[in-house]
Fold:
Amino acid sequence: MDISLLLIILLVGAIATFLSGDKWASKIAFIFSLAAFGASIYLLDLYNNAQNIGFFRQWITAPRISLAFAVDGLSMALILLTTSLTPLIIFASFGNSYAKSKNFYALVLFMVFAMIGTFVSADGFVYYIFWELSLIPIYFIALIWGNGNPQSRRKAVVKFFIYTFAGSLFMLVSFIYLYLKSGSFLLGDLVKAQLTSQEQFWIFLGFFLAYAIKIPLIPFHTWQAKVYQKAPTVGTMLLSGIMLKMALYSIIRWQLPITPKAAKEYMIYLIILSVAGVIYGSIIALKQKDLKKLLAYSSLAHVGLIAAGTYTLTLDGLRGAVLQMLAHGFGVVGLFFAAEIISRRYNTGKISEMGGIRIQSPKFASMFMILVLASVALPGTFNFVGEFELLYSLSQRSVTIAIFGGTTIILGAFYMLRMFQKVMLGDKNEKLFADVTANEGIVMVIIIGVLLFFGLYPKPIVDLITPSLQDILLLINRN
Amino acid sequence: MYTLIAIAGLGVLCLIAEIFNGRKAIVPITIVGLLAILGLTATGFNATAATYNNMIVFDKFATSFSCLFILLTVFLIALTPSFHEKQIQKISDFVSIKLFLLTGAVAMVAFGNLSMFFLGIEILSISLYVLAASNRLSLKSNEAGMKYFLMGAFASGFILFGIALIYGAIGSFDMAVIQEAGNSADVEDWFYIGAILLSIGMLFKIAAVPFHFWAPDVYEGSPALTTALMSTLAKVVAMAAFFKLVSAMNVNLPESSTTALMIISILSMTIGNIMALRQTNVKRMLAFSGISHAGFMLMTLMAVSTSAGALLYYTSAYALAGIAAFSVVLYVTKDKDNEDIFNFNGLGKTSPLLAGILTCALLSMAGIPIFSGFFAKVFLFGQMLGAGHITLVIIAVINSIISVGYYFKLILAMYTKEATEEATPVPFVYHAVAVVSIALNIALGLYPSFLLEAMR
Structure:
């Protein structure tokens, strides 16, 4: 019993969904995603009992590439994030109907398969393959099932693809270079490669391009808002909830341990760049007239802070980053789902056409309010734990930067609450707004439950990730 | 050796079958025959056999490339009857010319003597001229054949003159002697002139920049099946032959030749890609994409001693994806007077399987993982980084990014635009060839060791 089981479940699920026909596709996909969740809980249990759930098999002898999957607390946390969000995302999509839904749900499961693969690969080459594989499904999901004007959607999605593809190719070159240096793609061997500081710099840069585009950090973010807006909500949730975590995870897993010298040397610039993204995202978010775009820019600000935390190279920074990744994952999925609930009823994304919803649907309003408060990191929510630790780690490096980073909370509160006011409050809207259905309610309640539970009791997750992060930190601080 | 004889014999058999009214049997018999020859050739893999005073030398390089050529020809011949539906009475000509072309191709990788090499390249070229002009009532096809013939004859002249000068310098046509000569003493100056002329001729056949001007026009004008043949089989053959020539003469060539080849490789991939971005005709687009792939393949010449495996892998991946792509293009552009991209609109709805296959083929050419095109690029980049050509790799990477732009134009057309016409039924062979070749492409991606080990 090892981690490959999870991958097999998802791959079989994707195939079964594709074969099942349009009528049953969403249900089959949901069942398989639940099975994956169950499997990951079981794996967590095995992992906690200190059993080896890694997987190793030689694949190509020359060049030496092996199907190596390894799991530690860090990857376990992200696996759980992925497998718990997937059923929620699929369940949330039951309210929509998609043409050719068997293709749609098969692509969703395939994408989840690739993302899990990225989180567990211990071989750089296999990791890269999964990294790229996850791009193809989301490309088609956004392209075919997206909304808005097809012409501008095509442009946005192709731009997204070319951007991310370009970034990852430079990562690939870095990997090949590392292979020539160390004779292996295994992470364990790559960190042992003797690299001069100049080599470290170029390899760091190769990785950085891939990750900075995917996260995204400014100035590589220009693809993001439009794709989030144009993609179907399921796609947006997958992108913002899980996919961008791939890049943040990869920074901690691959980039920092392989090129620690470069990371230390350019630390301050990396942090400044990331924090600049926080402020930039927040200010742009203030001016957005489209709800999904506003959420996209707020997400840009939040992930900027996470990236800044990882680049501080402190335990607090890394731990805060992982906690915030999980919190942001749930939070942003909840917010995009709220936007979807509104657009199901009003058929619009424009904030100006909303307003006066609270009077008609108090239940939805209070759920949305909790999500908004979580997003601005109100104490007691999961986001607070992460954001607090991130800001603390920044202050360990530079108090000034921490103060700038702290604006995310102030500005965030400003634009999120203003958005809530415009969207929900005010006189009764003449358009009817039915309160949340049972299905929608279940998804919202689960997300809110997770955010509040771990906000009050983050210990299980902290215990899960801290030892692994300490190991990684040891690798980073080796000489 | 028997590979060569058997293929030629099969070609003659085709012509005879026509006389005895066996037209229906031609294609099945050739396919079975070719597969048998493929099996026979593959069994002799480990033994190096030199025959007829070193005229023909079947080593690992020759054997493995011959197998690839035979496989590609099987696909191309399988597509022949339904493509030439309206000229079915000439089917024996179309099949036998392809078989003779294959003899030339095999001779071009199995030569042990420059005269044999020249014979091979002429057999291949003349068959191609005929095939390019084979749609004799179409003005475009005639133009393509004429253009190709004039330019090709010119290139052949270069090659012949180059061979003559090399003979003058070394005193032998034998490849082994030529290779020896470089190790022992200084060679005469005209050897270099000869080598340059020979390279120019070969670069023309490969359609590398700046010798590429014929390619887009000829590709566009020729019947689509011939275009498929040119862009897959003919390109791969010329590349393999050029690789063999360069690796034989490598010790003699000065440092600067590497620089020149590198510049040609960079120019080919960049100009090919940039021009491809602007094309609306699919055949022209694939022609320019082929030019850029030629640039990638030329990269192997920077490290001839180690990269034979990478070349074999790259050419196989490229050619298999090309066959899969072209079998879809053949279906879509059937009975149309143009091959513009809008013909592909809505293919994702009207025939999802073919659209899926074309998508896979294009993704493979663009170098997206699990398709073998990705692994081909990885191994190529690995070789080049190992040889210290970092700049070249960076430029190649940038070109891979550009190429996504035009490959995705087709994908976008298939999936996001509405079909303009009713779908017509797809002939079985188109499906079969497309499925088999893309399956082989993916299998190569999953078991890359199979080909890489072959050259070791």
Q: What stands out?
A: Chain A touches chain B through 30 residues (CB under 8 Å). The first helix of chain A runs from residue 4 to 20. Chain A has a mean pLDDT of 88. Residues 103 and 124 of chain A are 30 Å apart (CA to CA).
